[in-house]
Design brief:
Strand 3 and strand 4 form a beta hairpin. The protein is of the alpha+beta class. The chain has a domain of 32 residues. The strands form two sheets. Strands 1-2-5-6-7-8-9-10-11-12-13-14 form a twelve-stranded antiparallel beta sheet, with no helix packed on it. A two-stranded antiparallel sheet has the order 3-4. The protein is built from three helices and 14 strands.
Length: 247
């Protein structure tokens, strides 16, 4: 018989306890891993969340579905835009992680005013919306202002959203009102988008096709006005209209 000293007995007990602990831990880990792999193939009938991020293999965003409180502020050229109010909906990102469009909607109510709207938009490369499906409704004191339809905008080639954001921040810091207005006009002339096409119902309750030149000036309108009259109008650079349909 081998005689064990008290210290040796204590060491053996500790080794046995550690062995049991390791076996139990391994068993629990195996159960958790197996459960996780099984869950990947399970079907979920309903999911309630406040925000869902879909990412690429590199971890960068591809799509965000969110409520208005947690909505992504937007991202361009690898930079997140400052936190701002945005409606609930879906924000799309390209494979560089930059925002490239969205599907959103919201209602905003005031004391005597209701603003309701929804839009599906596609963005210019490194810039803002250039293709839009929109519905905008404003109700105030019983009167309605409604615009709904399909819009095409155009940005100057080479313009970028982040450059515009940085310049607007610098302009806001100018104390002289005249200089600030002049700088803002210069920025708009160089970087602002121009409306090129609208098909739908405008704020004057006209329904039709409206075409614009590269400066965003209306040049041709084919529409039915709010009184039900068909009109075909050609406009000059100053906005003077000539109806091409004789009464």
């Amino acid at each position: 018989m081998v005689y064990l000293m008290p210290m040796e007995k204590k060491l053996i007990r500790r080794v046995n306890l550690l062995t049991i602990y390791a076996c139990v831990s391994t068993l629990i880990l195996g159960i958790v891993l197996c459960s996780s792999f099984r869950q990947r193939g399970e079907n979920v009938d309903e999911l309630t969340i406040k925000r869902l991020n879909i990412v690429g293999e590199d971890g960068s965003l591809r799509l965000v579905i969110s409520n208005e409180t947690r909505q992504h502020p937007g991202r361009m050229d690898g930079q997140d835009l400052p936190k701002r109010d945005r409606p609930a909906g879906i924000i799309f990102f390209n494979n560089k992680g930059d925002e490239c469009g969205g599907l959103t909607g919201a209602d905003v109510s005031g004391k005597d005013t209701l603003n309701s709207g929804a839009s599906f938009t596609m963005d210019n490369y490194r810039n803002d919306q250039v293709v839009e499906m929109v519905n905008e409704e404003t109700y105030q004191n019983g009167k309605a202002n409604i615009r709904r339809g399909f819009v095409v905008n155009e940005f100057p080639v080479g313009s970028s959203l982040m450059n515009t954001v940085h310049q607007l921040t610098a302009i806001d810091s100018i104390k002289d009102a005249g200089e600030r207005a002049a700088r803002l006009k210069k920025l708009k002339d160089k970087e602002w988008p121009s409306r090129r096409l609208f098909v739908g119902r405008d704020l004057d309750d006209n329904s039709g096709l409206f075409l614009y030149d590269d400066k965003g000036r209306p040049r041709l309108k084919i529409y039915v006005d709010k009184d039900g009259h068909a009109r075909l109008e050609e406009l000059d650079e100053k906005g003077n209209a000539k109806n091409l349909i004789k009464p």
